[in-house]
Amino acid sequence: MNAFINKINENLRENKLIYIIITITFIIGLILGVYSTLYMSQSSKSDVTSYFNSFVSSVSDKQINYKDLVIESVKNNLIFFVSILLLGLIFIGAPFVLLIVLGKGFLIGFSFSLLVNVLGNRGIGLALIALLPQNIVIVPFIIICSSLSIQFSMAKLKSKFTKSIMSNEAIVSYINFYLFSAVFLVAGIFLETYIVPNLMKIIIKKFYV
């Protein structure tokens, strides 16, 4: 684990600009997500409010279906994980990696803003509980993986111009990093599936029912 962390720190020092670009892209996505809820129609907001009120009224008695939550979380997170991995293997992948990071930021910003928009100040606490725990793990993981994907994609692009061939060892090392870093993805999925729903249930029972 220490070797893995040292490798990340070294990569961060050597590729600061790429990390800065990815972080800025993510923040832009967040901002776009937040602002998009301001342009929702009143009927859409009413639908969300009705759905949430229905959810609140049933949550105290409803058993959490962990199996469905695990499947949904794995499916959603694997889309980002696999897409970023594969895009690093093609020489035109870098711009698409940034689009994925932008999309992730947008989804988080939209979800947070929607709860706050619909529920007012009461929605801030719920939004933080619903989004913060798993994303503390998943977002840095996505930023690191996105940086490595862009670096690898750019290296492949460079090899196209220099007519050089990228070694199989470099490709295996790149894929191995992803397989090892999947432990952080698993941690995020665990938080999203088992911790967050129970925290939301406690908060809703205490403040919203």
From TrEMBL:
InterPro entries: SpoIIM, SpoIIM-like. The keyword Transmembrane applies. Keywords: Membrane, Transmembrane, Transmembrane helix. The chain crosses the membrane at residues 17-38, 78-103, 123-150, 171-191. It holds the Pfam family SpoIIM. NCBIfam families: spo_II_M (TIGR02831). This is Stage II sporulation protein M.
